[in-house]
Amino acid sequence: MSKFVVPRRQFLLGATAATAALSMPGIVRAQGSGSVKIAVVSEQSGLFARTGTMIKIGAVMAVEDINKAGGIKSLGGRKLELVVEDAGDSIERARSAAQRLLSQHSDVVAGTGAWLSSHTLAITEVTERAKLPWVTLAWADSATERGFRYIADVSAPASKLVSESLMRLLDLAEKSTGRRPKTIALVYDNTAYSLAFIKPLKEGLLNKLGVKPVVDEVYTPGLSDATPLIQRVRTARPDFMLLNSANVSDSKLLIEKLNEFGLGKGRIPLLAPGANIGAPEMLKLLGADKIEGIIGLAANWESVKQKELAADLAKRANEPWMTQDTLSTYGSVYVIKDALERAASTDKDKVMEAILSTSTSAGPADYFCGGSLSFDKTGRRLDAPVALFQWQNGRPLTVYPEADAYAPIKWPKA
Predict the structure, then answer these.
(1) End-to-end CA distance of the chain
(2) What is the domain extent for residue 174?
(3) pLDDT band, residue 192 (cuts 50/70/90)
(4) Do both 131 and 93 map to the same domain?
(5) pTM, whole model, 2 decimals?
(6) Engineered SS bond to 59: which of 8, 40, 188, 347, CB 3.0-4.6 Å?
């Protein structure tokens, strides 16, 4: 595959950001020699290209800022060089991207990505064999349950995300309406992150919470018609709905159909795990009225503590706001940078050891919700919070944790 070179100071300036971000996979080179290669593998083409591109943008801007600030100081100011590979829209392509990365760039010292947990699981099988440190945002519990030594996950696992978010929302509903929801509709795709999210619900969590699933529908991403799925929701009339969709186009079809059937705008309160529900495209495609009140669940979202950084990144990327994917990837690159500084070495074992020994409430922790950043022995982030955002007046605002929130959460009402 051909590579391209982008001069560092010309990347992501003004309106050129979108064009640069959508370019073919390549290398963003640091000026000068002796650079330190790190990688990002994300979905640059296919069904998940928009989210994968936002991941790439986060990596590119982090490398830009680190190099501008003097590079890796403990390594004599060596600059970072970013290698970009396209994970595509299938597990096979994601695995091939990781294999291509290693065959063409054996001197890469660490990497991050992809977006879809299914792809990350495939990629890290390859990087683990190569003993390449990898920082990811995978929700799937299994990402850190395989006994791997070269992975660090900055997200809470799906089992924690689902349990904490549902308990909080049930309490909120009871407080707001005087009635605790008793029934739920589950509509979700068959990607690894989505199935990981649904698994604890079916294995006893819903029963423990006193909630009965009256709709349980799974589909393959790339919907052409959401009518059959939403017809079942209309028939069942649940107290609230969980919608797990891995891409904007499917989310748009499902929410549009909910509104068409008179179930939107809070008539059936909606919890939607995944950053795509808070993407700017949702506002453009559906309008503020149809998405008002929808509660999104993410592993990270813009915190009030990141307000200036998020505004700067959004301006440089030519986006109205930043989502989990750009912010978390920006932070993940800083996790690698911090490890390189402390290791004072590009030896992969030393870098991985430094990543896992991260324990800080500053530096790379500044780019994630929550007050600290550290990892357990499996590589999973300790005390990783659940991040909830809600569409309020045309913006997906962080509403939980309270210390990171822009606004209080509201139970959606028709």
Answers:
(1) 52
(2) 158-298+388-404
(3) confident
(4) yes
(5) 0.89
(6) 40
